[in-house]
Amino acid sequence: QVQLVESGGGLVQAGGSLRLSCAVSGRTFSYDAVGWFRQAPGKEREFVAAFSWIARRTYYADSVKGRFTISRDNAKNTVYLQMNSLKPEDTAVYYCATGSRIGSYDYWGQGTQVTVSS
Q1: Dist. CA 14–CA 99, nearest whole Å
Q2: For residues 94 and 101, what is the distance between their CA atoms, to the nearest angstrom?
Q3: pLDDT for 39-48, tens place per residue?
């Protein structure tokens, strides 16, 4: 089992920044991919960013390229999502997830709310 706990969400004005954290514990050696997703009210969950440990590659949704950065601290088993130049349309609950490969996620966190005011 793998456990994920997100933190760092909150209320920020448009143009501001937030950094989300995802603490990963448990059978951490069992996953290759870590991703961030978000779900806005009334909308489906969408992909935001991900990286593969094996491929050492990062992936971003077009809507966040150049504004968001995914990174990790191996020593802390923590994955981050740095979000800059935030827009009201970035408002959503943000989730982190892990899985055996990019696109296949088995474990999810509980989510953290990000609200961007105009």
Answers
A1: 32
A2: 20
A3: 999 999 999 9
Integer Rg of the chain from CA: 13
- For 98-118, write each residue's pLDDT tens digit: 998 888 999 999 999 999 999
Give residues with Cβ within 8 angstroms of 68, minimum separation 6.
48, 49, 60, 81, 82, 83, 84
Closest of 117, 118, 116 to residue 9, by C-alpha: 116
Distance CA 38, CA 114 (A): 9
What residues form DSSP beta bridges with 113?
A: 93
CB 100, CB 28: distance < 8 Å:
no
Q: Compute how many other C-beta atoms are within 10 angstroms of the C-beta atom of residue 49.
A: 24
Which tokens belong to 11?
Answer: 């209320």
Query: Angle at the Cα of 39 (from 34 to 42), degrees rounded to 5?
Result: 160
Asked if pLDDT for residue 30 goes beyond 80, the answer is no
